[in-house]
Amino acid sequence: MPARGCAAAKATARSALARGPASPSSAPWPRGLHSVPRAAPAKPSSPPGGADGTFVAGEVVNKQPVAMGMSPELYGYVLRNTREPEVLRRLRAETATVNGAHMQVTPEQGSLLGLLVELLGAVRVLDLGVFTGYSSTAMALALPEDGRVYALDRDERPMQMARKYWAEAGVSGKVEAMVGPGVESLQTLLQREGPGFLDLAFIDADKRQYETYYELLLQLVRPGGLIAIDNTLFHGRVVNPTPEDKAGQALAALNAKLLTDPRVTVVLVPIGDGMTLCRRRR
């Protein structure tokens, strides 16, 4: 290298050393599926949730959850890595053609429900709010041959599609459909079968009735059994529900109640629109 070029290179190096390493916040983030822009690391004296409003106000958060910034590409990756039986894939596609398709559980929720059935060794489960039958079919597929799904819905119309796919999945013999108001159907089961006969119950029906459903199911589910509650994040409306938002208010009140209910062990999982799992202690 010529002497002039060498001197210039040394001067550039000295200048870079004086400036120090590039700031993480100023360095460009590569674009792509796994390169969601991240906030600069918080200063030691100002942890996440500090007075400067970083990250989650009022909370110390050491790891940013994927759910806070999941892209369509990343959710596609989740779907491609979810075991979804072909019959449930067809059901999902047909449900997309009817009104209220957004009420169907997501494939990863269906997979989780099936796993919970297996983990519990469940034989008797209940699906409150069948709609077109995704969750009931997912649980029925995971049950043993002598298993039973009590499928409750107030509307027979979407149940027609559910019946079709129960048959296609080969689980019709495991399903008992009950059409009518949810509270009445639960009370009927309580009188007919007695308390503690269920291993697992899934609630995905009228949000304003969730607390009533929960209290009845605490009687119907055995100690050690599980109540899974859908929509407990409710599109974010549980954070500050308006006075007119009766469903959002009901869900926010139930979440607050579950947090301190000594009868259950509880976890709110940010899957789908939020699913809360409640294990009955006694």
TrEMBL record:
The keyword Acetylation does not apply. Residues 1-19 have a biased composition (Low complexity). It holds the Pfam family Methyltransf_3. InterPro entries: Cation-dep_OMT (IPR050362), SAM-dependent_MTases_sf (IPR029063), SAM_O-MeTrfase (IPR002935). It comes from the Eukaryota. The keyword ATP-binding does not apply. SUPFAM superfamilies: S-adenosyl-L-methionine-dependent methyltransferases (SSF53335). GO terms for molecular function: O-methyltransferase activity; S-adenosylmethionine-dependent methyltransferase activity. One of its GO terms (biological process) is methylation. Residues 1-53 are annotated as: Disordered. Keywords: Methyltransferase, S-adenosyl-L-methionine, Transferase. Belongs to the class I-like SAM-binding methyltransferase superfamily. Cation-dependent O-methyltransferase family. PANTHER family: CAFFEOYL-COA O-METHYLTRANSFERASE 3-RELATED (PTHR10509:SF14), O-METHYLTRANSFERASE-RELATED (PTHR10509). This is Caffeoyl-CoA O-methyltransferase. It comes from Edaphochlamys debaryana. The lineage of its organism: Eukaryota, Viridiplantae, Chlorophyta, core chlorophytes, Chlorophyceae.
